[in-house]
Design brief:
The complex is a heterodimer of chains A (400) and B (359). Chain A has 400 residues and is an alpha/beta fold. In chain A, 34% of the residues lie in helices and 30% in strands. Chain A has helices spanning 49-69, 106-116, 165-177, 188-196, 199-204, 236-247, 251-260, 292-316, 339-347, 372-387, 391-394, and strands spanning 4-10, 14-22, 28-37, 41-42, 45-46, 78-83, 89-98, 125-137, 140-143, 153-164, 181-187, 206-211, 216-222, 225-232, 275-278, 288-291, 327-330, 351-353, 359-360. In chain A, a hairpin with a 2-residue loop joins β13 and β14 (225-232). Chain B is an alpha/beta fold. Chain B contains 13 helices and twelve strands. Chain B has helices spanning 13-27, 54-57, 66-76, 100-114, 132-148, 157-160, 167-190, 199-205, 224-234, 260-274, 288-291, 316-328, 349-352, and strands spanning 7-12, 33-37, 49-51, 89-95, 119-125, 151-156, 210-220, 247-254, 279-286, 294-302, 339-340, 343-344. In chain B, α5 (132-148) links the parallel β5 (119-125) and β6. In chain B, α9 (224-234) packs parallel to α10. Chains A and B meet through β7, α6 and α8 of A and α10 and α13 of B.
Chain lengths: 400, 359
Amino acid sequence: MTNIYAALEIGTSRTVLAVGEAETGGRLKISCHANIPSRGIRKSQIIDIASASHSVKSVLKEVEKNQAENGMSLTIGNAFLVVSGQHIKADTYQGTAQIARQKVSDQDIEEVQSAARGMTLPREREVLDIVEQTYTVDNYGGIISPKNKSGRILKLNALYIHGEADRINDARTAMGEAHLELRDPLFACTCAADAVLDDSQKRDGVMVLDLGAGSTGYAIYCDGVLAAAGAIGVGGDHISNDIATAFQTIHSQADELKKREACAIVGDYQGVQSRIKISGLASSVELRTISRHSLNTVVNARCRELISIIRDTLEELDLIHRLNAGVVFTGGGAALDGFAELVSRELGTDVTIGKPKHVDGLEDVPNPEAYAAICGALMYAHRNYEEKSLFKTLFGGFGK
Amino acid sequence: MSATSTMMLIGVGGAGCAMADKVYRLFGEDMRRLLIDTDASSGIAGTPFVLLGAERYAGRGAGGEVTSARTAAEDTVKLIEEHIGGVRLAVVVTALGGGTGTGATYEVIKHLGRLGIPSIAIATTPFSFEGEARHRNARGMVSMIADAANASIFMPLDKLVQHIDNMDLAMKSAVEAIADAVTLFWRLVEKPGYIRLDVERIRKTIQGAGRGRFMALTATGPNRAAQIVEKAVSAPLLADGTQQVRSILCGVLAGDDLRLSEIGKIADGIKTAFGSRADFELATVNDEAHFGGKISVVAMMFEAVRKEEPQQKKSAGRRQRMNKLVLTSSRFNNSEPTIWNGENLDVPTYIRQDINLEF
């Protein structure tokens, strides 16, 4: 029997469902995926459960139809949920254990790992992930592998990534109404990072920016460990809203302008018309034109502000000079023209678009970076549940 | 004490006046306070009272209309000036959703700002069953108050009284919960102990503090410090919060038996629970008469990065345009606003930065 997993993202602009299967040799292949425009979501948060549930039902039906076309009959009963939004934050907690026989043993490590998982969160918060960072033996910190080191006290820092329980429960309800059980909720940005980064980037220092429509997630790796993570409540939807306000268009038209015409850098107009034609809302309304310079000015102001927030965050964490491997973009917003160059100029780092490296099946997808988080969630499922051989009990909802 | 105190409690609207009066009665001594409403019946004998919009509404109230209350406040908010001489810090309590609390609070806070008086706004938001109109009123004003006040705390009534089904009892409990917390905060400032928290220190702490959360806990017995820490991580806070906590104002109030180890345990516990990297300001009160045998802790936790310098004043016209947009823009109306360093990022950047566009 093949291990099969499903991952769902109820995003601000689209709802995505993907099914992954373990291939011979241990790699993961996306066997089927679908995405549809979301309804009832603003800034990564569900504001209308009935509409969000309708989106989940529609994407589920779409995946099952695609599977049927490929001659497979699959009923998806549960899915890992990719969560994003400004309610997500991360805090460090330190576990401490006494070293029993002066040299750190496996038992000491287990004890300190257990202690590091002892943080109590306020009950309105729900843990999305607990990531081990580095060990300290007496006063010597930054240790990745402490085994056999001499000392008396062993400490371990753990990074707790957590979100607002009510938000996650809203997603659980929307899924439940579509007869889909929520498996583990996972932070979108760290999932995306798992899918697009390799170990050397994490060692050298890298920041993943997951540019969603509703929010921007970040995950910063230094010396091979996740140093910080979080989310900023500004996304691509803010750019579209700024355009709609400035040029008095409807949101969908502003969104199209952003995708087709806008550039995050002002003054980069070679080979393009200085004015852009936009249609009226009704066919009887004449075409009008707007200034390309003004469009790019609006987009540039929002992008620069987002970058300045990111820079402030990096400076506050004292990580601004640790990004030797640069910045990696994932998410649908990565496609905005000129944004990568603007980030590179403002932060003084290399910027690349992160394509999922460790997953097959997305070769024909035009913007695979938009699927990075969902790929990472499937990798998480594959890694954690196959190793434990719990297929039958945990994946009872699947049936071929 | 009250004549020389530089901190003033201001209640706005019917519920805000009731909350302020409850704090005064719990405090049990004279305190600088001011009640503000469009309804003359909110006035209480012996307490300074400002009637807004007397010419328009003749003291009968704004009829639950936010716009009417706001207009009344715009016309007559200057009347508060005769009561606030020497005030260095204002704590403004109100309930959002109805008329005057929702419409006038922003104007009061804005006027205090014009006079150079920093403010902490403490406001309730409606129960979930109260109807979309009241929620919309409250939502629109939350961002504006957060923007105008130096620090602001918004408390959903649903969270304040989670297990009470009786409506009357629920409202009374909500007022009491807020009044208890504010009274503890007042004692912290007016009855200082070994570690003093005075108005000037609070002014510095709340500079650009942004949105915050509020917590008030009490415990007795030999393990009272541990109980406080346990309650701090498990009890619901008196306000919502989504961002990382950047600064914490924490007061420990107890009798003469307060031990140093207890202060340390509480401070460590709260830092661990809410933000180990946050700026932490601690104060103590030793008041055997009120706290003999028990420990009370009151804490305010703020989310924005603290600024050493006051934020740059924006031109009135620009501010009005921005606020109007926040109120009228429907795109992000139903979602949690994105506030960064006191600015509402849901308002288009080019407007906040006064960028002129060619058309």
